[in-house]
Amino acid sequence: MMRQFELVETIKAYDPNADEDAINRAYVFAMRAHGAQKRASGDPYFSHPIEVAGILTRYKVDTATIVTALLHDTIEDTDATFADLEKMFGNDVARLVDGVTKLTRINFDSDQAKQAENFRKFLLAMSEDIRVLLVKLADRLHNMRTLQYIKKPESRARIARETMEIYAPLAERIGIDEIKSELEDLAFAELNPDARNSVVRRLDFLRNQGGNLVNRILSELNHLMLENDIKADIQGREKSPYSIWQKMQQHDVGFEQLSDIMAFRIIVDDIDSCYRTLGIVHGTYRTVPGRFKDYVSTPKPNGYRSLHTGVFGPENQRIELQIRTREMHEVAENGVAAHWNYKDGGQPDAARKDGPQYRWLRELLEILDHASDPEEFLEHTKLEMFKDQVFAFTPRGDLISLPTGATPVDFAYAVHSEIGDRCVGAKINGRMMPLRTALRNGDQVQIVTSKAQTPSPTWERFVVSGKARARIRRYIRMQERDQYMALGRSMLKRTFTESGNKFSDKALNAVLKSFSQPTIEDLCAQVGAGHVGARAVVEAVYPRLKNADNNDKVVSITDNRAGNSKRGEGVSIKGLIPGMAMHFAGCCHPLPGDRIVGIVTTGRGVTIHTIDCEKLKQFQDEPERWLDVAWENTDSQQAHVARVTLTVSNTPGALGDLSTVIAKNGGNITNLKILDRQIDFFDMLIDIEVKNVKHLSDIIAALRASEAVNTIERARG
Ligand code: MN
Question: pTM score, two decimals?
Fold first, then answer.
């Protein structure tokens, strides 16, 4: 286990300005917090965060990242809270640790392999700060290095799969090749030990048979560079068992045919030397067709640059060659971490957060997601990462990806249509929240359902996903039909009774044909929707009623409708019953943009109230009269009367001020009444013509700002 002074010395060696005090405090804090906790290996738990910090020193990270590494499990596994960390280490570190904790809590269910890409995106989206991701990768690397101590085979397998599918690709994406290869190989050893062992055995065999082939090729390449006067640093290595295995699978070749198990790197001073070296190599050895790639002129999306080629090299062995400059090498090995900038040391971490190096990192993350091939890399310079997506979780940990702005209702429909139809509430991260709440990345959403619930037309106003919208509309259409049926039936009953006849299904059955309706339900719906008059049905059953009495006591809704009923008062409202008169309630003065309901009064049509109108209480026991309605649009130019009550200071000119403010804001006073006059203030009521709720609230805001106004409120019923 790395000791405190060793850690500090390692960091000081690359960052003389590192905050030694903060690192020491974090070390002690984590040691105390984890106390006597033990790892599966039997080591003190605290050895883990130190190892994670140690891994990160390899990438020359800043003090905040080291401190975060030391503290990364304290929120999750000890009594320490966000507030504790914030108090002791500042907001920056507390947020970083919190970020790592959130990633730790995600449970990747690998049965859903197709979701792996979503998870990777999600992790990137959650790691708004690249340092969170670096700590998480180092954390995973150390956990993989100690995987053998986990007792349950199924836990080991799960962790290994997660590593292979999520974390290794992530390390590759941010360009840290070293971590990527080690993660892959450790996971490979767990997931497919037989395959790995056979690769390792073959490697051993080839090594013994060929003597020290790598060294012999190295010296020949060195000689070649010297002859041509190129200063080069050449490295040779065997590829990792996993990458050899992968190649065997991809190209469907056996080990015998797979001779290019060695890779060499020629590191030179500048780009010019890269291409010269390439020329010399190609001039000396036969090339393997299809292996040449120029990632110098066209870098990979993660910023990787190198020339790649394959040749039949010294001793006629197939070898893979990478040619790059020192700088390119640094990026290839350390990825984004290579871009850490310490030139501005001395400044506190928080101040550096928005420094150019972070902007660069953020942009890189953006590009990483959007560019799928090198050509795209150059085209994308400024894209916002996952701007159009939000990721939320079911209580079981399944990941649901939704459009930005999605609500629990969208979430419910995404999980299952049935759950969407029946949802009555939602717990977001354990707290009951309104169904219209916009979800945020990483929210855990639990939908509360009820058998009695049905989709509400009001949901349509806030859902953003196509599936939710389609389901809700479909339901509303069906529900409308049900309403028409019920309404038509009651209209028919009344008309039958008023004409002195008995209403029965049998009577209706007899006239279905003459109205071209297949069933009684259809006929009722036609009557309810106003396409067929109730009186006409009665007269069809009892033809003698025709022309009989004309004193017209029989008043059905359809007879009574105004010509412009649905578009009454020039504004259209969704959910009305065609053919039914509509008017706005005088008690609450609904405005476009208000949440509204309709109350059906037989013979009078529908009265629109605001959803919070006091008067609605009296209809509580008559649910059949309630109609779910909504504004078609809230931007009408039509004037609507709104009522406000105010307390105004009793000073000369106060009323003049009010009318000026209202006129200036495009309102028109239609009625004004003083309710109670006192010495200093008086209460009053004003009716104003406005376009919609937004318009009214603009006027209220302007009035509130006026000196004359003490209080102002919209009148409700
Ligand atoms: Mn950990």
Answer: 0.52
